[in-house]
Every structure is written in structure tokens, then in C-alpha cells.
Automatic annotation (TrEMBL):
Residues 110-162 form the DUF2179 domain. It is found in: Cell membrane. Residues 20-76 form the DUF5698 domain. One of its GO terms (cellular component) is plasma membrane. The keyword Transmembrane applies. Its main location: membrane. InterPro entries: DUF2179, DUF5698, UPF0316. Belongs to the UPF0316 family. Keywords: Cell membrane, Membrane, Transmembrane, Transmembrane helix. HAMAP family: UPF0316. This is UPF0316 protein SAMN05421790_104125. The chain crosses the membrane at residues 6-26, 33-52, 58-76.
Length: 170
């Protein structure tokens, strides 16, 4: 009986974790890999569901099934965070028009486009930085270290084309 509970719990963790990864891979545009992952996902799902349906006589089997699902969501999220697939575009707005920030970011290996903008209370330096998602925290920490008051917004670009930085990020 205890073995069945552990099996249900672990199968649900595996199923939901794989489901999360498949969804992310699909959203990143890799349909072939997502299709292959979905085969494993459904196989594991059916194992768990069949086991729960065979043991419906005990309510705690269903509770363990639900707990495994919840833990799978958490595990999948943690794995996705570690995978950090794709790219981010971070827009940085600083009050320091004469800032060394663009040059320092370039020296640190980030692609930067900069221009002067007009804010509520004067001129601002606007930076557009493209980087791999796994370097986003490094970028944000770098900017905060140089200008703690900088305003930052990040976006995940779906597609991009051209520019020397595109060749460097692949």
C-alpha cells in the first residue's frame, strides 16, 4: 500500500514536470522536440491515472495524486528556471545621460543600443540590451551596481533578425 502511494506521487511529479518542459519547448518554437516529449508525458500520465483508478477504494490515493501534481508544478518551474531557454531584451532607462553604462555593458559581453530620450523631468539615456535569458540576472545586477536608480523592463522576444549581436548569441 505504501509503495503504491510513493509510486503515484513520483509518477505525478514526473508527469507534470515533463508537461511543463514540453510546454516551454513548444512555446520556444521547437515542435519536433515537443512532440517527442509529449509521448513520454502521456505514457507517464496513463501509468499514474491507471494506478489511481485501480486504487480508488482509498481517498488518500487521490490526495497523493494531487500532491504529486502540485510538487510537479514546482519541480517543473525550478527546472525551467535553470534551463533559461531563449533570449530577453532588457530596456534600461537611466538619469545619467553621460553614463559609462553602455560601454561597460559591451565590455561585459552584452549587446547594447543606446539613445537619448525625454523623461518627465529631463533627458534620459535609454539602453536596449539583448542577452541570453540565463544571463538576465547578471545583467540586472550589473546595471544595479552601476546605477541603483535605473528603471528596467524585460521582454522575451519571439523572433528577431539581423544585427551583429544575433550572430554572437547563437
Amino acid at each position: 500500500m505504501f509503495g503504491v502511494l510513493i509510486f503515484i506521487f513520483l509518477v505525478q511529479i514526473a508527469y507534470v514536470t515533463i508537461s511543463t518542459i514540453r510546454l516551454i519547448v513548444m512555446m520556444k518554437g521547437n515542435a519536433k522536440l515537443a512532440s517527442m516529449i509529449s509521448f513520454c508525458e502521456v505514457f507517464i500520465y496513463m501509468l499514474g491515472l491507471a494506478t489511481v483508478l485501480q486504487h480508488m477504494d482509498a481517498w488518500y490515493n487521490l490526495v497523493v495524486y494531487c500532491l504529486g501534481f502540485a510538487m510537479g508544478v514546482y519541480t517543473g518551474s525550478m527546472i525551467e528556471e535553470k534551463m533559461a531557454m531563449g533570449y530577453v531584451t532588457v530596456q534600461v532607462i537611466t538619469r545619467k545621460e553621460d553614463s559609462d553604462l553602455p560601454g561597460n555593458l559591451r565590455k561585459a559581453g552584452f549587446g547594447v543600443t543606446s539613445w537619448l530620450g525625454e523623461g518627465l523631468s529631463g533627458e534620459r539615456l535609454v539602453l536596449l540590451v539583448l542577452t541570453k535569458r540565463r544571463r538576465q540576472k547578471e545583467l540586472v545586477d550589473f546595471v544595479k551596481g552601476m546605477d541603483p536608480q535605473a528603471f528596467m523592463i524585460s521582454h522575451e522576444p519571439k523572433t528577431f533578425h539581423g544585427g551583429f549581436w544575433v550572430r554572437r548569441t547563437r
